Amino acid sequence: MNSLQVGLAIAGGLILMGVIAYNTWYARRNEPRQAQPEAPPPGDERPEPVAGPGASMAEPERVEPSFDGDAALPPLGPLPTPDKRPALDALIDVIAPIALDGRVVSGDALLAALPATRRVGSKPFAVEGQAEGASEWEFPVAGRRYHAVQAGVQLANRTGALNEIEFSEFVAKAQLYADTVGGAPEFPDMLPEVMRARELDQFASQHDAQLGLSLRARSAAWSPGYVAQQAARLGFVAGAVPGRMVLPAAQMGLPPVLGLAFDAQAALAEQPEQAAIHELVLNLDVPQVERAQQPFARLCEVAFALAQAMDGVITDDAGQVLHPEMMSAIGTDLEQLYDTLEQHDLAAGSPQARRLFS
């Protein structure tokens, strides 16, 4: 082998090594980012036990791991239960009183008479009673006795307004229920109620707002574990379905303040560390969350915090990059929406608003 062949062989080897090195670097560069082990909080290091003469070799005390990712968040304080208002409200429901002719009916009887399906078409159907010695309406409770009963159906929700067919179905269902408990229902006229349902539905359609912000990876994709870790540091917890996390409300039982969603198939992948997520969506259901919780401000704070930590860019549904001044303009519009909802006794986060915008 002459010197030319040797030189070509060396050059070829160097080129091959360069290609392999580049491919390795490129693969690592585009590998989804992985969750990293959490560092223990300062002062939590435990010294190794030293066995002295006659010391026991028993296993040291086990300490369960704890999550400390939300240490920077302000304390939530006590978690009170939601305000228990009547399920039925004349503002958003058709209500039919059921006369009992002075009789008292047990809660057990009222519960036993409930229909198997508590819906009328796409609208919720509900029954309430007034217990002896009480003035508030409540869902029947076993063991209590009730001197007044009423049935109702919701006028509108996000599926549309109550129509004539649904109103007739409500009359039939409420009549059957009244017959079972030995009462006599009194129904309002259908046409005015259907017209009221259409007006309420029109108002709701014009003042419904569900905001969504997309966070897109600038370069390397994210693994599901990486997304979950970064979101958990801001207070998010796993949702009811794969690929969804929520920021809980301060009060137990209320809708979450914010939602976070990403590809469910990535969350269900057999090897989630290899699943690549290029985009996630932060969403705020405006009428579901009360104004006092400042949900839009928290949406902006979370979005920009995640963008910085995950090397992402914030965009709208059309892919337009959103800057802080644009978010401020959206916030101004939301304040006007909050005012309008409050003026119509449908304040965001109230039981009536949560039912109407559902």
From TrEMBL:
Membrane-crossing residue ranges in chain numbering: 6-25
SMART domains: ZipA_C (SM00771)
Region (Disordered): 31-80
Membrane topology: Single-pass type I membrane protein
Record-stated family: Belongs to the ZipA family.
Name of the protein in its database record: Cell division protein ZipA
Primary role: Essential cell division protein that stabilizes the FtsZ protofilaments by cross-linking them and that serves as a cytoplasmic membrane anchor for the Z ring. Also required for the recruitment to the septal ring of downstream cell division proteins.
Keywords: Cell cycle, Cell division, Cell inner membrane, Cell membrane, Membrane, Transmembrane, Transmembrane helix
Main location: membrane
Keyword field contains Cell division: yes
InterPro entries noted in UniProt: ZipA_FtsZ-bd_C (IPR007449), ZipA_FtsZ-bd_C_sf (IPR036765)
Localisation per UniProt entry: Cell inner membrane
A single GO BP: cell division
ZipA C-terminal FtsZ-binding domain: residues covered: 207-334
